[in-house]
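User: Fold both of these, please.

Assistant: Here is the first one.
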Amino acid sequence: MLHRTRSLGENRVVTGYMRSSLLLLLAAPLLLANADVTASTAPETPPPPNQSVERSSEVKAMLDAAMKAGDEGAVNAIVKYAKAADKERAAQFESTASAWKRERREAAERRLREAKFLDLVKGRAELGGYFTTGNTETLGLTGILDLKREALRWRHKFRVQADYQESLGQTVRERYLAAYEPNWKIDDRAYVYGAAQFESDRFLGFDERYAISAGAGYSAVKSPALTLDLEIGPAFRYTDFVTAPTERQIAARGKLDLDWKLSKGVTFSQDASAFVEQQNSTITGKTALRVKLFGPFSTQMSYAVNYESAPPNGRKSTDTTTRASLLVDF
């Protein structure tokens, strides 16, 4: 009897142990899943102090190199990276970059204020031409001189242009232009302009044409790669036609200047201007692609259009010029 009672007790222990083991096996997946959730929600272990310091030193070295090179775009990019990579010191990097930009801007303004008149003058000379023989003998020449002076508040632009073409011993194109435009800058984008222009093109029907204008200008796009300037204002034009009476007209003037740097050495430009008046309107446009060669030299292909809405009798309304030119910056 004693042996039988002991066997029943042992059976109960074994049975309880088996039940506990079965429950543990059934609950194991739930415990493992809960462990995964806990691990996933646990806070990330911060990087070791040495690694954080090393990363900060690398960012500071890149920032110092960009500031030394004067590359503001790279400075902005590094500060943006620092905000994501090193949040603890991001404010310090941003403060350093802001102080550098402020000092750079103040130094540039100081140089502009203290510079002599000719120190700020930059120019570009363009010379192009062609000559053909055989069935036709054609000589074509074009020359353009652009000068620009960019000061703190004032900007001055001056242009002289001459086009000449001869075919079979006869002059078939002769056009001269001189223009001066002063700008007074209201802020970084807006400005007020004045413009004076002289033209002579007897093949378009006028010996002399004078135009004066004043109005408002705005730099709609202003970035290292793309600039777009727009101008609009009233104008007065005096035209001395070859075979028609002299005209004096009030007109509206509009102008567009676009420069787009497609790559480091390739620039696309589109210039257009219009004088809209009651008797005769004029629209001019020039599309050009400029490729840098070496040093101050570059080459340019351009296509220019000059349109008169009401030319004198016997004259065509549209005149076009295709140029291949060599440019020199100075």
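And the second sequence with its predicted structure:
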Amino acid sequence: MTAPIANFHEAYMRRALELARQGWGATHPNPMVGALIAEEGRIVAEGFHAKAGEPHAEIMALRVLGRKPAPGATLYVTLEPCSTHGRTPPCVEAIIAAGIKHVVVGATDPNPRHAGKGFEVLRGAGVEVVEGVLAADCADLNLIFNHWIVHQRPLLAAKVATTIDGRIACRTGESKWITGELARADVMRWRRLFPAIAVGAGTVASDDPQLTARLPEGEWCPLRFVFDAALSTATLNPLPRLFTDAHRERTIIVTSDRQHSVVVRRLVQLGVQVWQLPVVDGAVEMRAFNERCVREGITGMLVEGGSRLLSGLLKARAVDYLLSYRAPRLFADAASIPVATGLRVELPTVGLQLAEVRHAVFGDDQLMRGRVVFPDNLEIDENPGGETPESGHHHCGCDHD
């Protein structure tokens, strides 16, 4: 591929990515996909996948075109066209039937059973296929879908907001606000993407959060998980907003399978859902939690809990992805609250790392995000000392309203 043609393809693919993002958070369990048709250097039709069960992006673009594509027309699509029957017929059949002879694709289908088969079908029908244009950007768009398809369990992504020295709250527990308005607005955007959000009991007790995505286009409520093995949130007076607001039926308490039925029944009467799962060392067993999520079709969860919850999840190797916002602040106070504790790291090379890292800037704040890689020789510190997060050290330093 020559440089001018590559740049030409990339420009159209960036537009296809913009189209795909119009389905942000609305397509689960399907991926976000954007497509466009270009004729003689001009875009003549655009489409995106809006919702599971509705037409795919390629079909929408063909419908918008409303006629036979011109000879030499090119279809650009962010994800390999499907080649199998699902709720809708395979897109490769529609592309071939329309007479399109040139297709440019971003990411390959992550499903090992389907990966590359769409390309094979198209090429077998005489269609020229260019694959891998802005592949990393197109794959990054569907972090949740890709993880769900490959690993058959939800993507668990943790969000933290820290100072330069990795602190999420000062020694008093105060954390509002470490990051600025632009970074907190970006958190709202991520909340809209994930079908579920999670916090620990301490965060509920201290912050009484709403855990909704409040965006310019309106408010949206994901499923709201509260990890509370001891069911302490049920004894708060007054009860948390999560248990009493208009979205309370989307609140799920995750607690021990040995909890007293009277307390559980009281929550259910309020309209709150309760998942009773096995508890190990005072924490909900994450394998059982993931299995329940799979049964319920929950493809991803954003964890906004504080140091205690994040520490437990890291020790359990349960975090798949990390979004780390960093503010230009420095506490330099050993008594301030660290982002997480509980691991034993004696060499920099054996610490947790992020892969497929992406960066963004929001005013004075920075976002680093990426896939969490656990070293094979990960050690747990059984006596982490004075910085072990106590019951009150639950803040994440970002928006919990």
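The two ends are 50 Å apart (CA to CA).
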